[in-house]
Amino acid sequence: MCRLIGAVSPQPTTTRDLFAEDLQPFLALADEHDDGWGMAVRVPNHTVEVVKEPERAHDGLRLRSLLDTSTTDAALLHVRMASPGFPVTMANTHPFGDKSSAFAHNGDFSPAGALDEVIGADLLAAAEGQTDSERYYLAVRRRMDDGLGPVKALMQAADDIRSLADRLASLNCLLLTPHGLYAYTEHDPASEVIGRRGPGYFGLHYRTTEDGRTVVASTGWPHPAPQWDVLPERHVLELKPGTGAPTVHGR
User: Where is the Glutamine amidotransferase type-2 domain positioned along the sequence (predicted)?
Assistant: First the structure.
């Protein structure tokens, strides 16, 4: 399983300041989630830039430098714990995407090829790795390329997995586009007691800070109420750069 965090702010700032006091508790999770790291940011020309490495976040200077020099008003950060059978390679490292969108996943479903027909041969040919997570992204991307907005694309991709996969643990994810940051949460409660961490492990929480930033993150350090809100299951959190104000979309 992986861990992920995303944030937006009213004004561009360094990614270190964007994540602020949540950065170090999040990066501490890389002691266990040590199979790679990746970051996606919204850049000034309103495209998305992805940087990632198949190594523990603490082991390289590149992430440290990026946190201090990359300036943005929307970003996501991911640390990976590789699922069995999926090697630690650049192609399998999150986030997946290009200049139009970036996607990071916390969870798994099987078989990984359950979505291949939904994705279509053209997008499937662009897959670089073997993971179910990349195919989850490509299913979302298919919906967006066909004209859906990110909120509906995330919900419909989750519907596809639920109907086509034999098993799912969690579909928690973050999607960054030039227009916003989106979080979706869903998990099978049984997955919390079968080789996982217990109740709440797959929760996504979010909060808006006094300086106007909104942060959304998976668990691993305290997210006490009322400072943090729980994102309801099968809902999408939408965060718009420049405002930080969260919008929660249900079905």
Answer: 2-250
Pairing, β 48-53 against β 37-42: antiparallel
User: What is the SS3 assignment for 48?
Assistant: strand
Q: What is the CATH number of the domain that holds 103?
A: 3.60.20.10
- The whole-model pTM stands at 0.96
Angle CA 180–79–250, to nearest 5: 40
Identify the burial level of 51 via C-beta atoms within 10 angstroms of its C-beta, where 0-12 means exposed, 13-18 middle and 19 or more buried: middle
The distance between the two most distant Cα atoms of the chain, rounded to a whole number of Å, is: 47
Indicate the average pLDDT of the chain. Answer: 93
Instruction: Answer for the pair 114, 137: CB distance below 8 angstroms, yes or no.
Output: no
Q: How far apart are CA 24 and CA 206, in angstroms?
A: 17
Determine whether 148 is exposed, middle or buried from the number of CB atoms within 10 Å of its CB (0-12, 13-18, 19+): middle
Q: Which residue has the tokens 């991307």?
A: 141
What is the residue type of 178? P
Tally of structural domains, the chain: 1
CA atoms of 36 and 38, how far apart (whole Å): 7
Burial class, 125, CB count within 10 angstroms (exposed 0-12 / middle 13-18 / buried 19+): exposed
User: Are 165 and 110 within 8 A, CB to CB?
Assistant: yes
**Separate counts of helices (H) and strands (E) for the chain:** 7, 15
The pLDDT tens digits of the residues spanning 6-41 come to 999 999 999 999 999 999 999 999 999 999 999 999
- The DSSP secondary structure of 65-114, one letter per residue, reads HHHHH-EEEEEEEEE--PPTTS---STTSSPEEETTEEEEEES-EE-GGG
**What is the span of the domain harbouring residue 30?**
3-249
